[in-house]
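If you are new to this repository, start here. Below is one unmodified record pulled from the training split, so you can see the exact layout before writing a loader.
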Amino acid sequence: MGRSRAVQRGFTLTEALIVMAVLAVVVSMALPSMTEMIREQRIRATGFDLISDLMLARSEAVKRSGSVSLATQGQGWPDGWLVTIEEGIHQGVVVQRRAALGHNVLVQGPSRIEFDRNGRLTAGGTASLELRDVARNETRRCILVDLSGMPQSREGSCS
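And here is the target side for that same chain:
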């Protein structure tokens, strides 16, 4: 009588190597665009953090009817920043603290932005911060504080 042959299941080594080679090609094509997306997201996140902290400093100045500042800590913007009350019984109290940015994002602009009791800049005029991509050495985002004290964000340089 005939012997029945057992059914083989699984992949051969050749099939597995072909799948891995195709996967490696697909990943190598997607990697550059992922790197760019991560770089752009870091800059957007830093911009969002700066905008929200500028708005916090402005609203705290109006609420407390006194000066509140957003200023760098340590050696400058790469070391992070603080939102601090500048007047009154709570003078010196830190309202918000942001950690270091890391090495991929560079912020250029004044090291201190202060709002008065009306929510306007104490120095008068406007203030701007530029966020640069360190790897590409190009300005990616501009944060501008206008005459009314409201911060705005836009792509590109401030000039």
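Two things worth knowing about this chain: Residues 13-155 form a domain with the minor pseudopilin epsh fold fold (CATH 3.55.40.10). The chain has one helix and eight strands.
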